[in-house]
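Can anyone check this?
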Amino acid sequence: MEYQAFEQLKQRFARANRDEKVSLYVNTPDLTLDQYKELLQMFPKQDWNLLDQALW
């Protein structure tokens, strides 16, 4: 994903509730590995199990 679009996604991700964060993380196409990692750092660690379930 290009830089500007990713910056907009990060802002949206930061404002999103937990379920929206999961949806954005799982359903956003064309993210690079580094972009996924950056979003994961913004995701609450206590909710990683929800993200893991959504990925499977």
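Reply from J.R.: I decoded it. The mean pLDDT is 95.
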